[in-house]
Amino acid sequence: MACSNTPKTVSTTVTTERFKIEIPRDQQVSSNGINVNFKEYKLSQLESIRFIVSGTFGTSVLKPTEDSGLARVVIPSEISQIAGQLEWILMEHEHFLEKGDFRLMPTASLGTVENYLGPRSITASKRDNTMLVTVPTDSLDNMLPDDTAISMNHQFKGQTVKTPVKLKAGFGWKRIAAPLVTGRLSTGSTVGVISSKELVADVFPDIAQDFSINYERTHPFADGNELMSIKTSQIKDAQGNIMTDGTLVNFFIVDEKNNHWQTTSSTINGYAFAKILHPELPCTLSVNAVIKGMAESPKMTVDFKSIITEIPKAIFDNSTLKVGPLTSYLGQLVQDGVEVELQLNETSWILLTKDGYVSQELDSLKFPKGTYSLTVKTLGLESTYPITID
């Protein structure tokens, strides 16, 4: 009899000259093994009989046993509890006596419903999705047959969608389109009264869109001391979702002399903040912010004025050249350490303020009595005038 994957209509026994054997029929899997009984046999020749069975597990050669006048071959539970097609051959020595096949089908007793979800992180856009895969099994861990009905479900923002699906090759699956708002997408499946565990996918914002920046400061003066705050507008994606906290924003600053600075900030509720120290010299800064590879702001210019309006005239007293006091926009002395450059004819010094003044002692041999040209440079201002040394 030829092998076949379809059930066959055959007699319940096979007769040889010495044996009558029951033919296994299609049946459910069993954890107790399967008995193949001999209706008639010769005990003296039973040792020469072999029952060969093949399936997804491999091939096994089984010997018949005899007990209390009953001979049988026992297909062990390691084989009988695995669903699938089994092919068998009955042999005596090297001679084929009979062959056939039968199916082991999953039990009606459901075991578990395993779910797999991925990717577990998706973006709120029409181009993204996640897939839910369901693998239900019977109580012996066999996949259920094709066309078994299952319900694959997902919930987002209180809205539940249930999709009926039929198993194919032991699996059920469906693609779930990404919602266009951020949140948590919950999924699960049911087969009959058995439910799977809940699996969750996080929906994150899509790519950031361009944004704007502005600044706040207490005054417009280049004092080298005050901090200016730069703040972005609330950064969102194309769907209006606020960008995830911790999104890195780089702030780039360039001055008129093409000097560059950079600082980095992380978003909180879609906003990023940066602090920039006021320059020491009057200038115009160009500032823009960038989320690398995604979005940027237009450039913004910020002007800074000198903290002083004029440089006091230098005085020469007791061999010392002295400039000051330097007072800022509120009339107070400038902070210590402000750089002042003095140039007397071809000789120059760079000095630092102390209590609003700088002073330089002059060598009378190098600078005898006479009139010299003095240039004073500080805080972006420059003043040149003659000075008499006597």
UniProtKB/TrEMBL annotation:
Highest taxon listed in the record's lineage: Bacteria
Protein name: Uncharacterized protein
